[in-house]
């Protein structure tokens, strides 16, 4: 009976350790999502730069 308790404890700990270590790996969908996020951030930065340049040009044209 004591052996069975120890075996169950070892089995439970092993399952928990494997489960936690498996959660650290990123899936394909998560990687794709991160790429999309990066691309959107870069696009937003470029859009901000373009808007600032356009505003500067408009100010120059209007003599402000």
Sequence of secondary-structure elements? HH
Give the DSSP E fraction (strand runs of 2 or more residues). Answer: under 5%
Note the total helix count.
2
Helix content: over 70%
Low-confidence runs (pLDDT<50, min 5 residues)? none
Mean pLDDT score: 82
Chain oligomer state: single chain
Supply the helix-strand structural class: mainly alpha
The main sheet comes to: none
Please tell me what the overall shape is: rod-shaped
Radius of gyration: 28 Å
How many β-strand runs?
0
Distance between the termini: 89 Å
Helices and strands in order, then pairings?
Blueprint: H1 2-23, H2 28-62
Descriptive report:
This protein has a domain at 30-64. The chain contains two helices and no strands. The protein has helices at residues 2-23, 28-62. It is rod-shaped and about 90 Å long. The termini are far apart. The model has no long low-confidence stretch (mean pLDDT 82).
Short structural description:
With 64 residues, the chain is mainly α. The chain is 89% helix and 0% strand.
């Amino acid at each position: 009976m004591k052996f069975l308790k120890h075996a169950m404890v070892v089995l439970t700990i092993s399952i928990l350790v494997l489960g936690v270590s498996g959660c650290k790996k990123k899936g394909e969908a998560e990687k794709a999502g991160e790429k999309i996020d990066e691309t959107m951030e870069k696009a937003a930065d470029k859009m901000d730069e373009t808007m600032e340049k356009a505003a500067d040009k408009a100010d120059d044209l209007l003599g402000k």
